[in-house]
Amino acid sequence: LAVLRIRAPKEKLRPIPVGTSEDLRVGQKAFAIGNPFGLDQTLTTGVISAVGREIESVTRRPIKNAIQTDAAINPGNSGGPLLDSAGRLIGVNTAIYSPSGASSGIGFAIPVDEVNRVVPQLIEKGKVTRPGIGVNVASDQQAREANIRGVVITDVVPDSPAARAGLRGLQRDDNGRVRVGDVIIAVDDQPIRKVNDLYSALERHKVGDSVKIRCRRNGEEIEVIVTLGSLE
Asked: What confidence tens digit (pLDDT) does each residue in 69-115 have?
């Protein structure tokens, strides 16, 4: 999400009515407006196909409670509104699932309740602060290919909460071979099996909270307490 400043007389601007996404029902009408393939002011119609979906953002962090719709969403629709039958904003179109890159009837929108949470932070601070520990991790596919259960830390950001807690990333032995350091398997006793599990567990907390992280290191399990920092 981004916030744009428009320099124009107030009377020339007509804000869109804002609805809510918490009470959406599968099957209700949905309308998507956007600029697909450069065709501006295009309106497509459909229904709410599902709610509460979890999709992966471009930064690999999960977007929770995404709205799924079969209203046609194509490249160029991202950032456009998803409306209910009363013309109220219920989501911001953001992604599609499509092997071909064109609409296949599976589109996703960020729910407006999340927009209402994020936008004030962007206006006030110019950024969104999320809790984190300061590590980069391998993808779920990479972990599966290496036959590793859990989330593999690839490297630790210097002077981060993870660094101060002593967590380790990938290392090289004397022969130059890469060795796995720490594999996160639980946060506050909640099992961590994939990357989204880790992000979800951390986002239940706020910056400054302490969490207990259980890792597998050299075949043994260890536990460390990490005080969450801010990710921007």
From this structure: 999 888 888 889 999 999 999 999 998 776 665 556 789 999 998 88
Residues 117 and 122: their CA atoms lie apart, in Å, by 10
Query: pTM higher than 0.90, yes or no?
Result: no
Q: What whole-number distance in Å separates Cα of residue 137 and Cα of residue 146?
A: 14
The C-alpha atoms of residue 129 and residue 127 are separated, in whole angstroms, by 6
Give the pLDDT of residue 99.
62
Whether the CB-CB separation of 195 and 60 falls below 8 Å is answered with yes
Which domains, ranges and CATH numbers included, belong to the chain?
A: 10-125 (2.40.10.10), 130-231 (2.30.42.10)
Distance CA 232, CA 230 (A): 6
